[in-house]
Design brief:
The strands form 7 sheets. This protein has a 9-stranded mixed β-sheet, with helices on both faces. It is built from 49 helices and 35 strands. Helix 5 packs parallel to helix 13 and helix 33 packs antiparallel against helix 38. Helix content is 39%, strand content 13%. It is an alpha+beta fold.
């Protein structure tokens, strides 16, 4: 029996698929705590009859080889190259004396050298992986052994062990969180390696283990049993239950700490190991190491096969000719030994193999040996490039793979991570706009700290503006005062004191930057309790009573806090996206117009903006609202919808204060690099686990997205793909293309991708691509129009191109046997490739790899993946080229990459300079090597027709052996290492030159056949011109066999040398030296091999005695050699001149103007106007923290002296810097849109009767059961509200009834602000002074101060009340934490509350309110139906995330966040 959580507790992405899989596979993974023997007894089949342990150890091995498998596996991989098999075959033939024409060692030694070079390279790479694995496996951790925690290594962990983790520790295995020292056993984790988000996420232990396991003794006696799903790669899902003491407690991903997560802001936590080693989810996602081969490697493999077949055919033809002449030869030359030894057939067979061995030099081994040195040299040039050296980190570029350099010049797709790759993970407060006035950064005065007047200021803040600082310190501008109050009050930041300094702990870096900015300007957030916030305002401490917190989420796009200030006034402070704040302003004035212009400026500068607003609430209005809010909090169904209606009602008639602009700092040179790559026809895709708003804002910041782009959303993408698939492949034949003026971009989520790909996480093909949520509209706020991106003028745009949109992504005819899923994939990919930019948000590490596979499978283009975190490892391994950035997220990406860079900007030089040069050099090297080999060795075939078609060689044996190794090697080696067609500066200035590599123009089948034809013609000229010149000359020293061979050999050598001189474009001293040394080598080796001493030593091995000297002394022979070289050179020059003339004439073609049919509507419809403002809202705050604050879950208690776990202070030993592994991948996809604008038509007051009717209406509809099931399976992205485009003031639709714009220009607002509508108090005037806390604090709404030595709860009769409404304290659930004072507030001298009129309740003798222990909250209720403890406590200040009106009960924030 398994108690499975409700559908809302799971992310809707694949929840139904997960349940189907669980039904098929069964939840049969059992884990018993503190019982290793239980797990050791389980075995599973491994190979044949062998078995292995079912539960793996925590040892990981990512290396390819070990000491026993290195030699066989490496040889197996090396002989995957067809060339190696070919050379091995020829060496075997050479070892047979009857057919050998060349010594066997002439090929065996080079092959052995080649295998050794490649094996050494693979061994060095694998040693690095072994070192990384050893460092990870030897990390320390504390394991419960008996009655105490003992330090052990990660590799000693086993399933079922209880582990103690400290702050900043890395989680060693997938564990169930049992308890922690935080309130309610919360545990904060950082998952930047997984989803790229720097904001913290929280996990929570089961309430039963939180209350019971509070000592080491209880922990050691814990005998719980976890039943869950088998190990899988679904990082966002976990289904299981804890069976303990006869009760079952449901478990989900919110209770699990994944391997690689880093513990943050949590002193100590304890977990039970569920999965270990390769069973952990992150290791299931890390992928395998692939053998990467370049395009040229694959092409050479095919060419080797082609050349071998040609050699076989040539040898067979020559053998047939030999057999036809053999009988006549025997009759005429009966005295030869051949006539009496073998038959004609047997002799022909031997002759065939002899020809095959003789002609094998046409595929020279030296070419492959020299190519390895070329690859090595180009890799060293990358390592030595000073332009790619990053001084701050002392990190140079490094080529970890030496065999992929030429492929760097053929990259078509760059798939990049965002966080840490494009950005620096640093948020800075850049600018602000207050009351329409923009305040930007100014230079700080030298040798002067402008914030010395503020002893609580943070010295790390770089923002400084003297004018704004003077206004703040003057405290005369009410708008400025309220602006900074919003930043100091409206947030979920927690504060601690460390070394007498305030330390903020924020859920996102955005919030920390905003609160820190307010801190430096005198509005210092000091601390919070469950219902108060303490702020130091310009030296005066003020305590605000928190009446309600309305948290941020992706639907609301705003956060609000309702407080009562010390003067007794009730104020609402709100911050959020510009489009939602402007809709809720009381009226349109000059401040809004000026702020809108400022937001337009901020958006152009790619800054992340938030608008701030304020209003004062009438007490009577608040009292009525609070009553309805409490009633809505008690609803069992549609609670979230009712609360959102109430929040929306309160957040009306706001007064705009201004806007903030935060810079998510990009790495240096990122926009320029992306622009340069795009100019080089390289498509850049961004794959990130971050949410859409942030990713899109970064897309604009790095100029990947531009204002004139049409951004396709998932619903339109789905419609076009379905239309393409349903058109019976008609669109595939269409040749009509979109006009080039139309620029499109695509933004998709991991949910959409998972529904598209057939190789998704669950390995189940979908029956339909359409997201389940498209058929159902998500809940809209009252008066909100449907958020569709084609509102306004854009429908005209789509009508102009809708008929032709499918043509541009279906250029290739679909294969008739392809399945519908493959057709969808192909249609999607073609549409994506027609876009100028693609951004994939909320994708998992495995989905990143799936995108790479999708491109490689359907397009075959060269892909390059670049990232810096462990979440990018799978993508880096899967791509053709993997680039790891040596950043701050560890070295895991670096260890698995092919190239290492310190900055993304260096990718530009790596590809456009080193990559293009390497590709050009290798292509020139291959073409020239094939040419020179055929030019010299094809003469062997022509010579066969004049020697009786026998396998007698034309050249001296040593010339054959050394021609490709010494005589012609150095010039071609120079080409492969140093050749440049243009300089590095020109390569960066002209990115279009890179297209040649993408189109494989420099070496392909056509270039190969050109080289073959060129070499054949050269050999024909050299052989037959020499033959005609020497025919019947009768000179013994000129027309003999040896002299003839020397003349042809010298002609070939000089011809190929002249050709290389004409091919070299980058002349240096080295190029001249290479040519001179080649001739010197020929002269020296020829003189030695033809000397009398060697001839006397072995006449058969050195038969050409003084052959070269005799030829060179004859002027006629020199003239023949010169004639051959001149004839070859003139033919080449004439051919190239004619070819260039023909090519120029073909290029000059008249440009045909585009027809109206192709263009559609005028171009003006294709672009948005320049002054239409794009919302630059991007806030990384995670929902749910306000709920934890208002319920008191997140607030710390005083440490219990009986709590043994909290008292431990044993610190771990210092860890070495080792590569961190992956962390938890927890995110939620969000829908966005940049091209629409939502407006509210009216706001309806929500009454109690309406709330009751909502609940009844929801429970009475008979179709709700099926609707809820469909809703559970819908993607979250389909249910969340889209972003909208905010138009300029001139283009804005008519405002709501409560916001009538005033015509014309308004005068400058008065100092006190614009007049407020009835029922709202205006901002305080400058003359009004802020009373001291002792005079202004209310006497009836704030609790008495708590003693500093420990929190204490007031008696029931003194509990604070809100609006005279009853609270829910009597209905607390068993595990609900008490309301306690936040102990980490900035210590201030406590002042006494003056409450003369308030009656004092009797207290205990020590004047301390009675305290309640934790045990008073514990009951024996079954946990089988209590899925979400945090949700079960209704509160008057409760916030729950927005859900559909059909949902019976919303998911708690931590569960929603944990399911991606």
């Amino acid at each position: 029996m398994l108690c499975v959580p409700s559908a809302q507790s799971k992310d809707s992405t694949n929840y139904l698929d997960v349940l189907e899989e669980n039904e098929d596979s069964g939840l049969n993974w059992e884990v018993k705590a503190n019982n290793r023997y239980f797990h050791w007894q389980f075995k599973e089949p491994a190979f044949l009859c062998c078995k292995r342990n079912k539960y793996k150890t925590n040892i990981i091995r990512t290396a390819k080889y070990n000491i026993f498998t290195f030699l066989p596996l490496n040889l197996y991989e090396q002989f995957h190259r067809i060339s190696n098999l070919y050379f091995l075959f020829i060496i075997i033939l050479q070892g047979i004396p009857e057919i050998s024409t060349l010594p066997w060692f002439t090929l065996f030694a080079p092959l052995l050298c080649l295998l050794f070079i490649r094996a050494s390279r693979d061994l060095v790479d694998d040693i690095g992986r072994h070192r990384s694995d050893t460092a990870v496996n030897n990390r320390p951790c504390q394991i419960l052994m008996g009655k105490s925690f003992i330090w052990r290594k990660w590799k000693d962990l086993c399933v079922g062990d209880v582990v103690c983790l400290r702050k900043d520790s890395i989680v060693p295995a997938d564990m169930l969180l049992l308890s922690s020292t935080e309130p309610s056993s919360l545990c904060y984790v950082e998952t930047a390696d997984i989803d790229g988000e720097t904001n913290l996420k929280f996990r929570q232990a089961v309430a039963a283990t939180h209350h019971e396991l509070r000592s080491i003794r209880k922990m050691s006696s814990f005998q719980g049993k976890v039943v869950c799903e088998k190990p899988n790669s679904r990082m966002h899902h976990f289904v299981g239950s804890l069976d303990w003491r006869g009760k079952k407690y449901p478990l989900d991903s919110g209770n699990i700490l994944l391997r690689g997560c880093k513990i943050r802001n949590t002193d100590t936590c304890y977990g039970l190991v569920i999965y270990a080693g390769f069973d952990t989810k992150i290791m299931k996602n890390c992928g395998k190491i692939h053998l990467k081969r370049t395009k040229l490697d694959h092409l050479m493999n095919r060419l080797v096969v082609l050349i071998f077949l040609c050699l076989v055919l040539i040898s067979l033809a020559l053998t047939l000719g030999f057999k036809s002449k053999l009988q006549d030869f025997r009759e005429k030359h009966h005295y030869m030994s051949i006539s009496s030894q073998r038959s004609n057939t047997k002799e022909s067979i031997y002759n065939f193999w002899g020809f095959l061995i003789l002609l094998s030099v046409m595929l020279p081994m030296a070419m492959f040996v020299i190519s390895e040195f070329i690859h090595l040299g180009n890799s060293m040039f990358i390592n030595w490039d000073a332009e790619m050296y990053y001084g701050p980190l002392d990190t140079p570029a490094k080529a970890r793979s030496t065999s992929l350099n030429d492929q760097l010049g053929q990259v078509e797709y760059v798939l990049s991570d965002k966080t840490g790759t494009l950005t620096q993970n640093i948020m800075t407060f850049k600018k602000c706009c207050i009351n329409g006035q923009i305040y930007g950064p100014q230079e700080t005065p030298q040798m002067e700290n402008p914030y010395l007047w503020n002893e609580l200021a943070d010295g790390k803040l770089l923002f400084y503006n003297k004018e704004l600082l003077d206004i703040v310190r003057g405290d005369q501008d009410a708008v400025v005062r309220e602006f900074w109050r919003v930043l100091a009050l409206c947030h979920t930041v927690m504060v601690q004191e460390h070394n007498k300094q305030l330390q903020y702990q924020a859920a996102s870096p955005d919030e920390e930057a905003l609160v820190t900015a307010a801190r430096n300007f005198g509005y210092v957030f000091l601390g919070r309790t469950q219902d108060t916030i303490t702020v130091m305002e310009l030296g005066q401490e003020r305590v605000y009573e928190v009446l309600a917190m309305m948290d941020f989420n992706s639907d609301r796009k705003r956060m609000s806090v309702l407080v009562r200030n010390p003067e007794g006034s009730i104020c609402l402070y709100t911050k959020g996206a510009d489009m939602v704040i402007f809709e809720r302003l009381c009226k349109k004035d000059r401040t809004e117009i000026a702020t809108e212009e400022a937001l337009f400026t901020f958006a152009e500068q790619t800054l992340r903006t938030l608008c701030l607003a304020y209003k004062e609430v009438d007490p009577d209005v608040y009292a009525a609202w609070q009553q309805r809010h409490q009633e809505a909090s008690l609803l069992l169904k549609s609670r979230a919808q009712a609360l959102h209606l109430l929040y929306n009602e309160m957040e009306q008639n706001l007064q705009l204060l201004g806007a903030t602009a935060i810079e998510d700092r990009l790495q240096d040179g990122v926009p320029e690099t992306i622009k340069c790559l795009k100019d080089g026809n390289i498509k850049v895709w961004v794959l990130t686990g971050d949410k859409q708003e942030t990713a899109v804002n970064i897309g604009f910041a790095c100029q990947l997205l531009t204002e004139d782009m049409v951004i396709l959303q998932e619903n339109e993408i789905t419609r076009r793909i379905d239309a393409s698939c349903d058109s019976d492949n008609n669109l595939h034949d269409s040749k009509i293309r979109l006009p080039p003026q139309l620029k499109m971009a695509m933004v998709i989520t991991g949910d959409f991708l998972d529904q598209l790909t057939i190789t998704g996480m669950d390995q189940k093909p979908r029956n339909s691509l359409r997201p389940q949520g498209l058929a159902e509209e998500s809940w809209q706020e009252p008066g909100q129009q449907p958020d569709v991106w084609w509102t306004g003028r854009l429908p005209r745009l789509w009508r102009s191109v809708a008929g032709r949109l499918g043509a541009c992504w279906n250029s290739k005819k679909a294969r008739p046997l392809e399945s519908p899923q493959v057709l969808r994939e192909r249609a999607f990919l073609d549409l994506a490739l027609s876009c100028q930019a693609v951004i994939c948000c909320r994708v998992t590490p495995k989905q990143k790899a799936l995108i790479v596979k999708l491109i490689k499978r359907h397009k075959g283009g060269v892909t390059l993946a670049i990232g810096d975190g462990a979440n990018d490892v799978n993508m880096i391994k899967t791509a053709d080229i993997g680039v790891g950035l040596a950043g701050q997220e560890g070295m895991q990406a670096v260890q698995n990459s092919d190239y290492v860079l310190a900055q993304f900007a260096y990718l530009q030089r790596l590809l456009l300079v080193h990559g293009r040069w390497s590709y050009m050099r290798v292509c020139k090297f291959l073409r020239y090597f094939i040419y020179k080999t055929l030019a010299s060795m094809m003469s062997q075939i022509w010579f066969a027709f004049y020697n009786g078609i026998t396998a007698q060689p034309l050249y001296e044996g040593w010339f054959l052996a050394l021609f490709n190794l010494l005589y012609s090697t150095l010039p071609v080696l120079y080409i492969g290492l140093f050749e440049q067609d243009v300089s590095a500066e020109k390569s960066l200035q002209m990115p279009a030159l890179y297209v040649a590599g993408q189109k494989e123009q420099l070496f392909n089948y056509w270039v190969f056949f050109q080289a073959v034809a060129h070499g054949t013609i050269t050999s024909l000229i050299n052989f037959f011109v020499t033959l005609l010149a020497c025919w019947d000359r009768g000179e013994p020293n000129l027309c003999d066999y040896q002299s003839f061979g020397v003349i042809v050999a010298l002609s070939s050598l000089l011809s190929v040398t002249v050709e290389v001189i004409m091919n070299i474009k980058y002349w240096t001293v080295l190029s001249v030296l290479a040519i001179v040394l080649s001739f010197c080598c020929y002269a020296f080796m020829t003189y030695a091999s033809q000397s009398e001493w060697f001839f006397r030593l072995s006449p058969s091995t050195f038969p050409f005695l003084y052959a070269d000297r005799n030829v060179l002394l004859k002027p006629f022979a020199l003239l023949v050699i010169l004639l051959n070289v001149a004839f070859n050179t003139l033919c080449v020059l004439a051919f190239r001149t004619i070819y260039k003339m023909i090519k120029k004439s073909l290029v000059k073609v008249e440009e045909v103007p585009p027809s109206e049919e192709a263009m559609g509507e005028p171009i003006s419809y294709l672009y948005r106007e320049a002054r239409v403002r794009r919302s630059s809202y991007a806030f990384s705050h995670r929902e749910g923290y306000a709920d934890l604050i208002t319920q008191g879950t997140i607030l710390r208690r005083a440490r219990d002296t009986n709590d043994e776990l909290a008292g431990e202070e044993d610190q771990p030993p210092l860890e070495c810097e080792v590569p961190p592994l992956f962390g938890d991948s927890t995110w939620r996809p969000r829908r966005m849109s940049l091209l629409g604008k939502k407006k509210l038509s009216h706001i309806e007051v929500i009454t109690s009767e309406m709330l009751v009717s909502i609940s009844r209406r929801t429970s009475s509809v008979p179709k709700q059961a099926s609707a809820l099931k469909e809703l559970a399976g819908r993607p979250t992205a389909a249910r969340s509200a889209d972003h909208v485009r905010v138009s300029s003031p001139e283009q804005r639709p008519p405002p709501p009834q409560d916001r009538s714009p005033s015509p014309g220009r308004r005068p400058t607002p008065p100092l006190g602000g614009w007049s407020s509508p009835p029922g709202q108090r205006p901002l305080s005037s400058p003359e009004q002074s802020i009373p001291s806390p002792e005079e202004s604090l209310p006497s009836t709404s704030l609790r008495p101060p708590q003693p500093s030595d420990g929190p204490a709860a007031p008696p029931p009769d003194q509990l604070p009340t809100v609006g005279s409404q009853p609270t829910l304290q009597g209905k607390l659930w068993p595990w609900t934490p008490r309301r306690l004072t936040w102990p980490f507030s900035w210590p201030r001298k406590p002042f006494r509350w003056e409450e003369p009129a308030a009656p004092q309740a009797p207290q205990t003798p020590n004047n301390t309110p009675p305290q309640t222990t934790d045990d008073s909250f514990v009951t024996e209720q079954s946990m089988e139906v209590e899925f979400w403890p945090l949700e079960r406590q209704p509160s008057s200040m409760e916030w729950l995330p927005a859900q559909e009106h059909l949902e019976p009960e919303p998911s708690p924030p931590e569960r929603r966040e944990g399911q991606a």
